[in-house]
Amino acid sequence: MKVKEIINAILDACAIERISHTCDQLITGDPEAEVTGIVTTFMATPEVIRAAAARGANLIITHEPTFFTHADGRDWLAGDEVYRRKLALIAETGMNIWRFHDHAHATTPDLIFAGVQRDLGWEAYGDPVNRFFYTIPPTTVGALADLLKERLGVAVVRVVGDLSMPVSRVGLLIGGGSLGLGSDTMPMEMMRQLNLDVIVAGEILEWTLCAYIRDAAQLGLPKALIVAGHNRTEEAGMQHLPEWLAAFLPGVPVSFVASGDPFVYR
Question: How many domains does the chain divide into?
Fold first, then answer.
């Protein structure tokens, strides 16, 4: 199959109206190229590109940008050495890179949330109305933090609040969801409206949600926040994507390569 045929097959499988203004574009490559194999990943880093080429794949499906901004715009990168070297690596490996972000989230169920739910074992705990809300078996903030580290493969999580506090009502704002999704106040309003005990977040603004929950805890209210990082709170969705793709791309080799946590903790 050609790159463009793979892309069209994926968009058809999403079973939604195609999004007209979207970051889901062929970032590099030739739509007419014959696909030798597919690698799914959270982010097409140089290590992922090399790993995909070593597997004989020439199409990477990435969830996040290849060139450092949401729209993968490149005007600002003229003369940039990082860009030049990455582009040279892509050319050297003959890699085609397609972004799969907006349609992945808009599909029912959200393909990224579905992967995270599966890794956490929370498929039965989700709310049928609000996909961000989970009622999990009673636990504590500390035990929940340990579960996230184990199931998502996170070396470190950041916690605001009392580790011994009981929790069962959880808001799950993976990736950049806790940044507000268009409104700075959204995560705080969600915590109030759903009477959440804890929000599990990908990444945060420290002066909005973090500040709100710290103030709540210091004022004696049973509220907490666990920050597990954007990468690993969404990467699970891309890790399980090959299984979804295999259902309608028979005969096309598909595998996952982790881009991994970018940080070293000291």
Answer: 2
Within 10 Å of residue 27's Cβ, how many Cβ atoms?
A: 20
| 184: confidence class by pLDDT, cuts 50, 70, 90 | confident
Q: Name the token pair of 67.
A: 């060139």
HEC profile for 116-148? HHHHHCCCCCECCCCCCEEEEEEEEHHHHHHHH
- Would you say residue 170 lies in a domain? yes
What pTM value is reported for the model?
0.95
Q: Tell me, what amino acid is at 217? A: A
Name the residue range of residue 179's domain: 111-231
Q: Measured between alpha carbons, how far is 194 from 214 in angstroms, rounded to an integer?
A: 18
CATH classification of the domain holding 217: 3.40.1390.30
Whole-angstrom distance, CA of residue 119 vs CA of residue 162: 25
